Amino acid sequence: MLRKVIVLSGFALLSVSCVSKKKLTQAENKLEMRDAEIAKLQEENEICEDKQTSMEDDLMMYQAQIEKLQDENENTLRLSEDGSLESQSTRNKVNRILSQVDDSRLAEAKNFQDSLNIAFEENIKASLRNKLGENAEYADDLKVKVHQPMVEISIGESILFKSGSAFVNPKAYQLLEHISKILQSESSMMIRVEGHTDNQPVTTNTYIKDNWELSLKRSASVVRIFEDKFNVEGNRIIASGRSHYAPISDNSSAEGRQQNRRTEIKLAPDLKTFMEILGR
Questions:
Q1: Residue at 208 is within a domain
Q2: Which of 203, 223, 250, 265 could anchor a disulfide with 153, C-beta 3.0 to 4.6 Å?
Q3: Does any domain span residue 32?
Q4: Please, are residues 149 and 77 in contact by the beta-carbon 8 Å criterion?
Q5: Cα–Cα dist 125/138, whole Å
């Protein structure tokens, strides 16, 4: 009888132990799921904060440009209400630029303002590509977008960096020096340098943790070149990184990923002064 009691007690203890272990495992699983959810929410929050910062910085640049445009004279590039250029001298310059632009590009224009933007894009791009030097083979990785008053210069990874590296290739110094002359032309102009990556994890380097860090370090490297080597005031430059969250192409192909690995320089210059500098 005593033996039966002992055996039954043993089974009872074993049963309780199994139930407790099962509950512990369930609790641990729930905790892991909660931690994963918290991490995801934190990442989404960081993305939202980064987007908000980017929008605020762009707004500052627009406001500065608007204030500047209000004080410019009649020879500054402006459009009247009917879309015509107010300055005859400026009109003549723009017509000369338009005559050199490929017809297929001009066909993209829906109105005169679009034609004007395309003309500036092509002229700026041609001027900058002349400064590529040994990087001339990567000319297609240098792109320009004009949405007045904003100018966006996109420089591909192949021009500025080696794969997975945040150190600027010295071969790109001539191009950056040319851009720095534009940045120095207007002391009130704010400049934003944005680093972008593809969606592939960083695996070739131990000093860079992930794409967030890679994009930030790359933009900071370009900013340091502008400030330390070409004397652009650091208080006018914003360095930021967008990781892989602002792609311009599909990351599913090697070609798309290559286009996404880029550094963008965003500024709001006086385009008339801008064109004069580029022509030097």
A1: yes
A2: 265
A3: no
A4: no
A5: 13
Written as six digits, the tokens of 165 are 């590296």
Q: Does residue 274 form part of some domain?
A: yes
- Domain CATH code at residue 206: 3.30.1330.60
By the 10 Å C-beta count (0-12 exposed, 13-18 middle, 19+ buried), 107 is classed as exposed
Query: For the chain, how far is it from start to end, CA to CA, in angstroms?
Result: 108
Is residue 108 in some structural domain? no
Any alpha helices (H) in the chain, and if so which ranges? 2-70, 88-99, 103-106, 112-129, 157-160, 173-184, 211-224, 254-260, 271-278
Mean pLDDT, rounded, for 211-227: 96
Give the pLDDT score at 52. 73
Q: For residue 250, give its domain range.
A: 50-74+134-278
Mean pLDDT (whole number) for 249-271: 91
Least confident of 11-15, 34-38, 88-92, 185-189: 11-15
Quote the radius of gyration of the chain (alpha carbons, Å): 28
Residue of 180, 175, 184, 126 whose CA lies nearest to 155: 175
Residues 6+ apart with CB under 8 A from 10: none
Query: Cβ(87)–Cβ(59) under 8 Å?
Result: no
The residue behind tokens 């203890």 is 13
Question: Residue written as tokens 């950056």?
Answer: 176
Looking at the structure of the chain, the number of domains it has is 1
